[in-house]
């Protein structure tokens, strides 16, 4: 992705956007009206999608450093200017925190549901995302091998390589809940003959569980919400360069699949809008002090269109090691036609 824009004077925000065509001109006042959703079974009302009364002032968000807080207050007061990628429409949005989200593995879907104020539950949003993925993956317009390679890289990495970048690498496996007793019995047999519990679990799980290596297994994996109603439990094998470090057998079945970039694009496609992940980095993130806030755009797939205003999700980073952290919180985006576009804190 290439850097797209740097805003005036107080350069505390950066935007990253994939190169693409831009409209020749934009319109300003009341542009939001042309992209308002009609009420549906999923959305309470058109205006609730573009912001509601659940916003929290950034001063009330814990753990923010002064630089982060100053940057976030700037986009709350001056707004960000969003331009539709192909249509002559632009809207200024003020951005406000939408409240805390439980760190239970479902935060992407919970944050999205709250930012959109959907009637759907976070689980329904998750399953709708997976359904969208399968629809596109099984179509003839998707490079399935490229998707499979991406999934394998994320969830079944070659633990003999990549140690110049990573300290730890995780391998994800799926165990059917109905198979857990048999798996535990087989592991215990190895333990009884002197094999360590982790080594026994690694051997049995790798032999009998489903590796997450392609689109089909990704769909099974991303469907796991940590509920007793899930078909599968997630097993995590964690490695260092020296070998196996630990096995999370997830015996209580509470681990959920964290949303990833594939899921975010599927959300963007299903709900026909861009999604911006807003990252606020602290002083340990090894970035220049003038650039602590990043807007990472996720557009719908080529099979979908952008018919509605964007959604913003907040990710607070504490360093480059967690810049790709999986905890998301909602941002309430209020259209602000009273704010001049040329005064916006940032142009997306």
Protein model, in words:
- This is OTU domain-containing protein.
- The protein is α+β, with helices and mostly antiparallel strands.
- It has two domains: 2-122 and 260-347, no CATH class; 130-248, no CATH class.
- Helices cover 28% and strands 22% of the residues.
- It contains nine helices and 13 strands.
- It has helices at residues 46-49, 66-77, 107-116, 122-137, 144-155, 180-192, 197-208, 215-222, 261-270, and strands at residues 2-6, 13-17, 80-83, 90-97, 169-176, 210-211, 232-240, 243-248, 275-281, 293-298, 311-317, 329-335, 346-347.
- The strands form two sheets. Strands 1-2-10-9-11-12-4-3-13 form a nine-stranded mixed beta sheet. It has a four-stranded antiparallel beta sheet with strand order 6-5-7-8, with helices on both faces.
- Strand 1 (2-6) and strand 2 (13-17) form a beta hairpin.
- Helix 3 (107-116) crosses helix 4 (122-137), helix 4 (122-137) runs antiparallel to helix 8 and helix 4 (122-137) crosses helix 9 (261-270).
- It is elongated, with a radius of gyration of 22 Å.
- The two termini are 14 Å apart.
Question: What is this structure's SSE topology?
Answer:
Blueprint: E1 2-6, E2 13-17, H1 46-49, H2 66-77, E3 80-83, E4 90-97, H3 107-116, H4 122-137, H5 144-155, E5 169-176, H6 180-192, H7 197-208, E6 210-211, H8 215-222, E7 232-240, E8 243-248, H9 261-270, E9 275-281, E10 293-298, E11 311-317, E12 329-335, E13 346-347
Helix pairs in contact: 3-4, 4-8, 4-9, 6-7
């Amino acid at each position: 992705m290439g850097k797209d824009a740097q805003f005036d004077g107080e350069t505390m925000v950066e935007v990253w956007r994939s190169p693409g065509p831009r409209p020749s001109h934009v319109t300003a006042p009341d542009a939001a009206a042309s992209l308002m959703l009609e009420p549906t079974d999923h959305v309470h009302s058109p205006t609730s999608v573009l912001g509601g009364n659940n916003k929290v002032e950034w001063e009330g968000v814990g753990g923010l450093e002064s630089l982060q807080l100053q940057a976030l207050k700037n986009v709350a007061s001056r707004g960000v200017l969003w331009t539709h990628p192909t249509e002559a429409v632009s809207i200024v949005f003020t951005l406000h925190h939408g409240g805390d989200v439980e760190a239970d593995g479902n935060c992407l879907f919970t944050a999205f549901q709250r930012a959109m104020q959907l009637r759907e539950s976070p689980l329904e949003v998750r399953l709708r995302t997976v359904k969208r993925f399968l629809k596109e993956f099984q179509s003839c317009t998707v490079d399935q091998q490229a998707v499979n390679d991406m999934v394998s890289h994320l969830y079944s990495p070659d633990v003999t390589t990549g140690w110049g970048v990573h300290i730890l690498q995780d391998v994800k496996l799926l165990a059917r809940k109905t198979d857990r007793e048999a798996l535990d019995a087989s592991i215990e047999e190895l333990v009884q003959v002197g094999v360590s519990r982790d080594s026994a679990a690694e051997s049995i799980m790798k032999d009998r569980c489903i590796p997450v290596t392609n689109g089909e297994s990704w769909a099974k994996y991303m469907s796991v919400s940590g509920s007793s109603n899930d078909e599968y439990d997630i097993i995590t094998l964690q490695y260092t360069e020296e070998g196996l470090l630990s096995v999370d057998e997830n015996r209580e079945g509470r681990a959920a699949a964290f949303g990833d970039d594939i899921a975010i694009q599927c959300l963007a496609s299903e709900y026909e809008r861009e999604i911006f992940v807003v990252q606020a980095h602290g002083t340990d993130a090894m970035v220049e002090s003038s650039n602590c806030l990043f807007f990472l755009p996720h557009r719908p797939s080529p099979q979908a269109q952008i018919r509605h205003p964007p959604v913003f999700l907040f990710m607070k980073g504490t360093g480059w090691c967690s810049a790709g952290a999986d905890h998301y919180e909602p941002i309430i985006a209020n259209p602000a036609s009273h704010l001049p576009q040329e005064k916006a804190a940032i142009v997306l």
